[in-house]
Amino acid sequence: MQMNDMILVSVDDHVCEPPDMWDNHVPAKWKDRAPKLVTKDDGSNLWVFEGGQIPNVGLNAVAGRPPEEYGMEPTALSQLRPGCYDVDARVDDMNANGVLGSLCFPTVPGFVGELFGRKAVEGETELAITMLRAYNDWHIDEWCGKHPGRFIPLAIPPMWDPERMGEEVRRVARKGCHAITFADNPGALGYPSLHDAHWDPFWKACSDEGTIVCIHIGSGTRLAMQDMGAPIEIMIAGTPITLFNCATELVFSEALQKFPSLKIALSEGGIGWIPYFLERIDYVHHHHHRWTLHDFPKGKKPSDVFREHVITCFIDDAAGVRNRDLIGVDNITWECDYPHSDSTWPQAPEKLWASLAGVPDADIHKMTWQNTTRHFQYDPFAHIPKEQCTVGALRAKAKHVDLTPRVGGGGKKPSDYAKGYCTIGDVVKQMAFALSTPFDSSKGGR
Amino acid sequence: MQMNDMILVSVDDHVCEPPDMWDNHVPAKWKDRAPKLVTKDDGSNLWVFEGGQIPNVGLNAVAGRPPEEYGMEPTALSQLRPGCYDVDARVDDMNANGVLGSLCFPTVPGFVGELFGRKAVEGETELAITMLRAYNDWHIDEWCGKHPGRFIPLAIPPMWDPERMGEEVRRVARKGCHAITFADNPGALGYPSLHDAHWDPFWKACSDEGTIVCIHIGSGTRLAMQDMGAPIEIMIAGTPITLFNCATELVFSEALQKFPSLKIALSEGGIGWIPYFLERIDYVHHHHHRWTLHDFPKGKKPSDVFREHVITCFIDDAAGVRNRDLIGVDNITWECDYPHSDSTWPQAPEKLWASLAGVPDADIHKMTWQNTTRHFQYDPFAHIPKEQCTVGALRAKAKHVDLTPRVGGGGKKPSDYAKGYCTIGDVVKQMAFALSTPFDSSKGGR
Questions:
Q1: Which of A125, A220, B209, B234 is deepest in the core (most CB within 10 A)?
Q2: B322-369: per-residue pLDDT in tens?
């Protein structure tokens, strides 16, 4: 097997929503209240919803920009690579990167639709569910629907009402969507914790429909921003491992015992720490269960529960690949993270292939596409002949795709930072600036 | 090589301070204000200092109790195994476990002397430094001094004053102590962060003296107690990995660049996650440094900086041992964690030997004693012939040590817990109870 023979399906990419996304899915009566993309005096874009601002921040959409210009500054849609928001351009970018399939997380609504959830808390539940369903319909019918076989649809749930969450799971399942987001720490968003029976209607619907619950980093647990004087790398490096706690919560939760077929995907969590994690939870259970009185049915170990229920993924993670036997090679999937700053686009095949040195073909296929197609009920070959799905075949179709970095002049000099390098405090200041400066609503809209 | 041929030196154990520890080291004028062990009406013991209560909590000293009786209830000294607080009994327990050497962290003063630090903040700096020095003198002269070759002394620093920290590093170094504690997140204790030049006098003294800075889990970063309804296992399982953030902070800090010979030990952090950690920090540096403008001298990678400065340790960690080449086998040390609940006492050699299957003798020696003796300037063989230092030789001297569990009747029934198993909330309630119930000071003292 050669690099070009791989089939790559990514379980974690991101869509930067296009300005027209609300056009076809919001009923006339609610149209005026849909989120709108506006242009500020400085030329940057931001979304406005119910008076609140949602800036585009740079690290969310840096694919194709020179690394010198990455950053958290607010950006204009015109600075972004069209693949961030235009699905035809996205498929071109996937082809150029040899990627067959992609599951895309939302940006503007938040990972679990917090934008709408906040309105529900204020009593505007009909506005909230209307916008949320419009989002899911756009995502499934337009973003994923336009290029059959190329996307795995992913819905967002109405977090404020577990019964409605269950209904939405069943509604989108009828439209062919078998993945939905959830928060790694719902308590941090003001909801009951993972250990509350409150969520049972949601778990039950997911279990009934075979819908995968996708828990993305940053969907509840705060990032490590405790020290404003610390290099920003500290926040970035520690983000994937924030799912360690959620993974523990899941394994020891009653939810997985009540719903034996429930499956959870840890999105952008990485895999290199999982062997340690599994050994640790088994150790803790073994050492402590006789006084804590917490036990698992049928003499299972915590690591058994994890392997039965949890799907992991990685971008580029040689230590995890080396130890795939300790993780469970049937539960490892791959991700590209386009267009975020951790993405390996457009060299994903080259980076991945280097990490796969010495791995048998059967294990490569499991990790790069077979596990994903099985878990997510995703059948690309019903739409595209398999021989056209490989890295080599897809790249051959993308000769016209321009991979030249889009230079925008957004880079920083050491003198731009008080310490000569970017700290967490510098990023917080940039974010606060983006949120606080006014925009001219007369220039709004697209 | 057989199990009995191993030489075991533990870099993380704990002393439960004996009631008489202040007798010989507090000047007469301050004697009345030294911490005192008192007995409550329910028979449990607690320490009192300046009107504040410091209960003994069970998971801190469970060695030799039946696992059914572990818990966070406050305990009486009489319920503890004497090896917790009596150094002769401790050496017996080390022998019974085949352990030659031990570095012991404090209990009553807190990992970094917070008990005294709080008084310094209130203006009582002379009281604070007097008690802190008395503690260090007792620890070095009595606890470690009574059995030459068996202990690696470990001081606590006057965190409220970096100049005084430097002085204390140099003072205890003259007494042969080359290890001192520090907090994984000093900001959480109210001090400046790791990224503040504030600490330079301390780092400089440690660097000059070859003193290892020992950063223990729980020395700043809060434990995962976000959800009162969650099984207590979640808090326990996630504690060692709390050092992930500190490890990142260290690598990207200016301190390690300013003081190239400074060495830090991550105490009770485990090692199985280190391969992932090193790959992650290199990935983040590679992907982001062109916009963050943070760089390392001489083209070093973050993983190089880690291996030059940071010493890791493990209790029982097969995944870490398997991947020791990715960690750096010269920086891995072993620990026993006596008498805490994660300890493998008294079967440490058996548990460890199982994790070492297939490891060459040279690597076993490095991880079990050679790295520790080198880094910590610890030379047991100056006091004890090497052939008497092995697991087999030490255990042969411990035939008289009674290993029968001490049954105390402290176990719980499922009906004692609202959920049928112990939650984080149950433990928090027990702790609050221990702190809030009054004690009869007329019965105080030993």
A1: B234
A2: 999 999 999 999 999 999 988 999 999 999 999 999 999 999 999 999
Q: What pLDDT digit, counting tens, does each position of B36-55 carry?
A: 998 887 788 889 999 888 87
Helix axis angle, A302-309 to A274-292, nearest 10°: 130
Q: Do B293 and A417 touch (CB under 8 A)?
A: yes
Q: Is B297 on the interface with A (CB under 8 A)?
A: no
The Cα–Cα gap between B435 and B425 comes to 15
Inter-chain CB proximity B276 and A276 less than 8 Å? yes
| Rg of chain B (C-alpha set) | 22
Contact B22, B138 (CB under 8 A): yes
| CA A29/CA A33 separation, integer angstroms | 9
The answer to whether the CB atoms of A319 and B276 lie below 8 A apart is yes
Q: Given CB atoms, is B67 within the 8 Å cutoff of chain A?
A: yes
Copy the structure tokens of residue B113: 């002397």
**Using CA atoms, how far apart are residues B249 and A224, in angstroms rounded to an integer?**
10
Of the CA atoms within 13 Å of residue A50, those in its CB half-sphere come to: 13
Q: How many helices (H) and strands (E) in chain B? A: 17, 10
* Rounded Cα gap, residues A57 and A437, in angstroms: 14
Decide if A245 touches B, using CB distance below 8 A: yes
User: Residue A179 in 3-state DSSP?
Assistant: strand
Contact A67 B421 (CB under 8 A): no
The verdict on A226 touching B (C-beta cutoff 8 Å) is yes
CA distance A172 to A103: 15
Preceding amide of B157 cis, omega within 30: no
Tokens encoding B137: 């003198």
Note the ipTM here.
0.96
Render B98-147 in DSSP notation, one character per residue.
TEEEEEEE-STT-TT-HHHHHHHHTT-HHHHHHHHHHHHHIIIIIITTSS
**Can you tell me the distance from the alpha carbon of B426 to that of B235, in angstroms, rounded to the nearest whole number?**
12
- Residue A161, amino acid: D
Establish, for the pair of chains A and B, how many residue pairs have beta carbons separated by less than 8 Å: 216
Shortest Cα distance from B73 to chain A (angstroms)?
Answer: 12
What is the pTM for the complete model shown? 0.96
Which residues in A lie closer than 8 A to residue B195 (C-beta atoms)? Answer: 227, 229-231, 423
Task: Kindly identify which residue of chain A lies nearest to residue B70, measuring between CA atoms.
Answer: A291
Partner residue opposite A291 with nearest CB, options B70, B319, B342 = B70
Q: At what angle do helices A162-174 and A200-209 cross, to 10 degrees?
A: 20
Mean pLDDT (chain B) is 93
Interface of A with B in 298-357 (CB under 8 A): 316-320, 322-323, 326, 341-342
What is the DSSP secondary structure assignment for residue B270, as one 8-state letter? Answer: -
A288: which chain B residues are within 8 Å (Cβ-Cβ)? Answer: 67, 70, 232-233, 236, 341
Q: Which residues of chain B fall below pLDDT 70?
A: 58, 409-410, 435-446
d(CA B36, CA A138): 68
What one-character-per-residue DSSP string does B386-423 give?
GGGSSHHHHHHTTTT--------S----GGGSTTSS-B
Using a CB-CB cut-off of 8 Å, the residues of chain A touching B355 are none
Long-range contacts of A396-401 (CB under 8 A, 24+ apart): A397/A95, A398/A92, A398/A95, A398/A96, A400/A92, A401/A92, A401/A93, A401/A95, A401/A96
Q: Scan for tokens 């300790």, then name that residue.
A: A326
A52-55 and A45-49 beta bridge pairing: antiparallel
Q: Name the residue in chain A with its Cα closest to that of B288.
A: A67
Report the Cα–Cα distance between both ends of chain A, in Å, rounded: 48
Contacts of A275 in chain B (CB under 8 A): 272, 319
Rg (CA), chain A: 22
